[in-house]
Amino acid sequence: MKLKPKITIADHFWGIEDPRIDRTKRHNLIDIMTIAVSAVICGADGWKRRTKATFMMKLKNYSLQA
């Protein structure tokens, strides 16, 4: 049985105002917030872009420790 979330990320952050200038908005703020929250949950520790190879090496090292 799949449980529905009690609150969504969008519901949680609904009151945050977007400080960006309209002409610079390429993505919705809630999309950026969702990606950031998901990245932190998955163990991201910064904004550095990672390649697939780097990710796979980190995953392999993690699985060897478990």
Please provide a written account of the structure.
With 66 residues, the protein is mainly alpha-helical. Helices cover 47% and strands 0% of the residues. It has three helices and no strands. It has helices at 9-12, 29-41, 52-65. It starts with 8 loop residues before the first helix and ends with a helix. The relative contact order is 0.09. The mean pLDDT is 79.
What is the total tally of β strands? 0
Alpha-carbon distance between the termini?
28 Å
Structural class, from secondary structure content?
Answer: mainly alpha
Shape summary: flat
Bin the helical content: 40-55%
Number of helices: 3
- Rg over C-alpha atoms, rounded to the nearest angstrom: 16 Å
- H/E series, N to C? HHH
Largest sheet: none
Low-confidence stretches: none
